[in-house]
C-alpha cells in the first residue's frame, strides 16, 4: 500500500519504466537499422541505447535508497516525506 503523498516513489518508478521503454524502442530501431545497413543510424542508436541502459541501471540501483529515505521521512513528525 502506498502512503499518502507518495509522489516521490511514483516518480522514480515511472522514470524507471520509461527508461526501460526507451531501451526497448532503441533496441527495435537498432535492429531495423542493422537490417537495412544504415551505419550512420546504427552508431547514433547504439549511443542512445547505451545512455538509456545507463539511466535505467542508475534508477534501479538508487531506487532502494530513495524509497528508504522517503519511508524514513514519512514517519518523522512535522516532515513532509514527498519534499
TrEMBL record:
InterPro entries attached to this UniProt entry: DUF892_YciF-like, Ferritin-like, Ferritin-like_SF
Domain of life according to the entry: Bacteria
Pfam families attached to this UniProt entry: DUF892 (PF05974)
Name of the molecule in the record: Protein yciE
Name of the encoding gene: yciE_2
Amino acid at each position: 500500500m502506498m502512503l499518502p503523498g507518495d509522489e516521490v516513489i511514483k516518480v522514480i518508478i515511472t522514470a524507471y519504466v520509461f527508461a526501460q521503454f526507451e531501451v526497448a524502442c532503441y533496441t527495435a530501431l537498432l535492429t531495423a537499422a542493422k537490417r537495412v545497413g544504415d551505419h550512420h543510424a546504427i552508431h547514433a542508436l547504439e549511443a542512445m541505447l547505451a545512455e538509456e541502459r545507463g539511466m535505467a541501471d542508475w534508477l534501479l540501483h538508487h531506487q532502494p535508497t530513495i524509497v528508504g529515505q522517503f519511508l524514513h521521512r514519512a514517519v518523522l513528525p512535522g516532515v513532509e516525506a514527498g519534499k
